[in-house]
Design a protein that fits this description.
The complex is a heterodimer.
Chain A (H helix, E strand, L loop, with lengths): L2 E3 L3 E5 L4 E8 L6 E6 L6 E6 L3 E5 L2 E6 L4 E6 L8 E8 L5 E3 L3 E6 L1
Parallel strand pairs in A: 2-11
Antiparallel strand pairs in A: 1-3, 3-8, 4-5, 4-9, 6-7, 7-8, 9-10, 9-11
Chain B lengths: L3 E4 L2 E4 L5 E7 L5 E7 L5 E8 L2 E5 L6 E4 L7 E4 L8 E8 L3 H4 L6 E2 L3 E5 L1
Parallel strand pairs in B: 2-11
Antiparallel strand pairs in B: 1-3, 3-8, 4-5, 4-9, 5-6, 7-8, 9-10, 9-11
The chains are: A mainly beta, B mainly beta.
């Protein structure tokens, strides 16, 4: 079956760095997305990786290892507004998006 | 200007009723989607429409039926509502089908409709 695993909840301190991991098992692979979802709001796009390596975009970076079925989202210089859920999603061989349940990130002052 | 809008934002109704949720996008996108996010926060795709043609239809009950009067609208009709239908329903749109785009085309989500069936 298809499965995406990510931690349910993480806590970090304002100004620090946090890494949110995602492992996936899908039937085929056409890329991995990270989305941010604030409580009660819709998901918003953060990043897309299809090749191995690190993609950097401001304070956020996303890494992919296809051979390991693994990705992480790295958030630097954490701000209180980064408190949200972070959803990992994979495009399978049928180009269907398979979603993880999300990691709730709590930022403390 | 709201890119993807849904109405209503909240919907509380009784079991057995029939209800509709409307979705409109003003981005000129080709494809629209309906997702269900349950209490465990999993996002599950229900339908997608490309140029008025259903291209993905997950195994959802036939009580759910999408209706697309034009490219900018994809409404969701639900008949004989059940307790398990309580969830947040998100509409989304993307510029191309995921098959055609394949690389990095993203989905733009509406604000969600919180459905509670009593």
């Amino acid at each position: 079956g298809q499965n995406i695993d990510q931690p349910t909840e993480m806590t970090a301190t304002e100004g620090a760095i946090v890494q949110i991991n995602c492992t996936y098992q899908t039937s085929g692979f056409n890329g991995l997305f990270w989305y941010q979802q604030h409580a009660g709001e819709a998901p918003t796009f953060l990043s897309y990786n299809v090749l191995d390596g690190l993609e950097e975009k401001g304070r956020f970076s996303s890494f992919l290892s296809r051979s390991k079925g693994y990705s992480y989202l790295l958030l630097k210089e954490l701000q209180m507004k980064d408190s949200a859920s972070y959803l990992c999603a994979c495009l399978d061989s049928n180009y269907q998006l398979i979603w993880g349940a999300g990691t709730k990130l709590i930022i403390k002052p | 200007d709201t890119a993807v809008s849904q109405t209503p934002k909240y919907l509380v109704t009784q079991m057995g009723n029939d209800k509709s949720i409307k979705c409109e996008q003003n981005l000129g996108h080709d494809t629209m989607y309906w997702y269900k996010q349950d209490s465990k926060k999993f996002l599950k795709i229900m339908f997608s429409y490309n140029n008025k043609e259903l291209i993905i239809n997950e195994t959802v009950p036939n009580r759910f039926s999408p209706k697309s009067p034009d490219k900018a609208h994809l409404n969701l009709h639900i008949n004989s509502l059940e307790l398990g239908d309580s969830a947040v329903y998100f509409c989304a749109s993307s510029p191309k089908t995921l098959v055609e785009s394949a690389l990095g085309e993203t989905q733009y989500f509406g604000p969600g409709t919180r459905l509670l069936v009593l």
